[in-house]
Amino acid sequence: MESYLVILIVVILLSMVRFTMVNNKREKLAEVNSCLLPCAFLCVIAGFRALDVGKDNYSYTRYFLGMTINKVYFFDFKKYWIYNLWVYLIRQVTDNVYVFNFLCALVLYISLYFFLHRYSSDERVSLILYINLGLFFTSMNQTRQALSLAVLLWAFHFVVQKKIVQVVILCLIATFVHNVAIVMLPVFLLFCLIPKITRSVATFFSIFSVGIVLLYNRLISLFVFIFPQYKYYLKYSKLFVERKSIFRYADFFLALTIQAFLLYGMHITRKKASVSTKRIDSDDIFGNILVCMNAIYLCMTYLILNGDIFNRLKSLFAYWVLLVIPYIIKKYFDDNKAIKALVCVVTIAYMWRLGVHDGDGVVPYKFYKDIQEILGNM
């Protein structure tokens, strides 16, 4: 646990480093914002982890070392051929697994950087949440899904701009990296096709998510039919009996609290708006998109209480929590620093009790073993 607290402290300190490089004519050459250095640091930590960090890393290592062109299976939906092609191309250059892990981490953290820099109301808070809510842990274990998520984060940029062709292409690429990503395609397409994401649309998503919960039994059968390989994960947890079930209830109540704040905030702003100012600006539209995304996340956190089968789906939507919480603080609490501090402290407790202990086998953390051995012999 101590190593992750050190990582968290370093991320906070690096997020305070901000400067702009200019030339003699005072023209801006480059800018280091509060998100750049922390993402670079996390990329190194995740990319150069020891190979025994993460329960799935051993399988990914063997898969990488055994990759040949015959295993790419071009255009085969069931064989995630784009991921295989990615592995194969790296394998032609090197057989060093650390290089492979670093390149995968580089893709994720470049995408995460632009995602937070473009859309987060407070990049530092988002980065702290990224660690405290356990997303950093999964990035060091679920390599293939992390790459798929990186593509989806890029796709979200085109969703905001309503560029359907780019959204479809990126969602398909993400799907051929990890097939669960296909569920994001109809969600993103809906955002693109609806002219304006209004409060009514956001409310509809909230109601729709409740409907999915009520239709759980039928939907679970449909999901298993589409993705039979995940039938194994269809098992149940009892509250306060299994540690993972407590972790999942914490996720659910967090998503429920966030959704309550968002819906209440929408109601208050609508009530305060006068007739002359009843227009939908870009900030309102973006906020409504976040309401929709969190509604789906809330739905997934509920469904996972009934079975592990939805765990992968839930993690697809978890990244938008990094935007939602800072948005709420800025929009409805006037960017209150005390509330930001409270959120960070509470989520540290969450990480301490739940996130780290169920962190996909990433505890204890170890850095690149070869470097450790070299330093030990100096």
TrEMBL record:
Pfam families assigned to the protein according to its UniProt record, in alphabetical order: EpsG
Membrane-spanning residues: 6-23, 35-51, 97-116, 128-155, 167-194, 201-226, 246-264, 285-305, 317-333
Signal sequence, start to end: none
InterPro entries: EpsG-like (IPR049458)
Keyword set, alphabetical order: Membrane, Transmembrane, Transmembrane helix
Name the record gives this protein: Polysaccharide biosynthesis protein
